[in-house]
Amino acid sequence: MTEPAPAEEPAATGVESGSPDYEGLLLRAGFNYHVFIAAAFGFAREHGTAPDAFITSVAKCLAPTWRGLQGHGADAVLNLVLENLASTGYAVHDVAFGTDESTAEIDAIPLGLDAEQWQRLLEPFAVTPDDMHALFRVFIPLAAAAGAMLELAGKRDALRLTVRRDPGAPRAEPHGHEH
Description:
The protein has 179 residues and is of the alpha+beta class. The chain has a single domain, classed as 2-Layer Sandwich (Muramoyl-pentapeptide Carboxypeptidase, domain 2). The chain contains 7 helices and 4 strands; from the N terminus they run αααββααααββ. Strands 1-2-4-3 form a 4-stranded antiparallel beta sheet, with helices on one face. The radius of gyration is 20 Å and the shape is globular. The relative contact order is 0.16. Residues 1-13 have low confidence and may be disordered.
């Protein structure tokens, strides 16, 4: 009787052709991002600070970078929020863009994980899935800096995002108009 051949690891997609597996790299980056955020939340809690305090601090630092969206409408603000969330592994659904109001739904668990996998990923940091929802709240003050209001509403394993243009915010000048 012969020994079975050892199992081989599957070849990474794209390696044979010499091109990187960009989709795989994006998935890995999203995983690494969530591990880092969970670690930061766990560290903050160990030092007597809630995850929301960490997020508030981050939002304060980032808010000035969102001011360039002032006057561009709810659609531009929601688009930037969704780009940020999708690039870290959150699936985006049911997007409706409008200048004054835009909406979307995202999966509340990233990276295509199920609830049990998500919980296991967070456990080493003593962080819960509910703790990780603080991450979504970073966008509330960022949207405000951009001249919009963001509402977040949990719906089972999903999150509904509604962005409304602040009625008092100035509107962007149409391109091509000279003063």
